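Async update (no meeting this week)

Hi team, since we skipped the sync, here's where things stand on the single-chain job. The sequence we agreed to prioritize is pasted below, unchanged from the tracker. I ran it this morning and attached the output directly underneath so nobody has to dig for it. Comments welcome in thread, and please keep replies under the output.
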Amino acid sequence: DNSSEFIPPCRTCRRQAREQSGEGEHHEGLSSDEELTPTEVDEFQKSKDNVLEDSRKIFEDVHADFCDIRKILLKFQEWKEKFPDSYCDAYISFCLPKLLNPLIRVQLISWNPLEQNFAELEEMTWFRAIEEFSDAENVSES
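Output:
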């Protein structure tokens, strides 16, 4: 029995339904299946605000030396300069991505490249800190 099968309404049917209901917010070329109702937009915004608020609390009880990427990388730079053999034996270049991953992810929670005023990755402080650390590593190796 195929009667329980969902058949999506055709484009013309959706357009007629919008016109009858008085919804004039549709833009031609955009899928009405992807349009959100005002209730859905409000729920999404509340959920997003809750996630952003929770993300601000993640590192609130962590000492500043251990939640700032620049300070962490400075510690590793000092280690490399003072004890190069130990630094090399610890394979730090392989460990840093896993170590910095949670810190970077928290900073990228609110980043949206589709927004008009989004910040470029290269402009973010964590990116510059890693770039400076990489440049310092390359200079000291050569």
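Quick observations from my side:
Residues 62-141 form one domain.
The radius of gyration is 25 Å.
Reply here if anything looks off.
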